[in-house]
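FIELD: query
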Amino acid sequence: MQHVLIQSNMAMDGCGMSRYNLVNAKQFVDVLSLMSNHIHKDYFLNSFPIGGTKESTLAKRLKNTNGKIRAKTGTMSGVSSLSGYAFSPKYGPLAFSILINGYVGSSAPYRQLQYRICKWLVK
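FIELD: result
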């Protein structure tokens, strides 16, 4: 399992990206990678919504990724995170974590950035 880490340190707190918090993108990816080889990996993977599918909580996100992204979101005011698996035809399965925080206003541009990164991962 290959790893993809993307972390933005735009602020001092939120989604594990602060020096005062205990979880960061690498730790999320480490857990995802560990679970990809676990005896219960199929149960774990099936708990992740599939990007862009109607029956998914990601129905309005990650469209046009052809079901190759399985991820969970995390959102608070000024925070948008997306972590999960990308099934890349070129690189194979990838564990990824995108943590963005410290912004003011709409999360739309940051969700769009997450989408562009995911689309790139599975092209």
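FIELD: remark
The chain has three helices and four strands.
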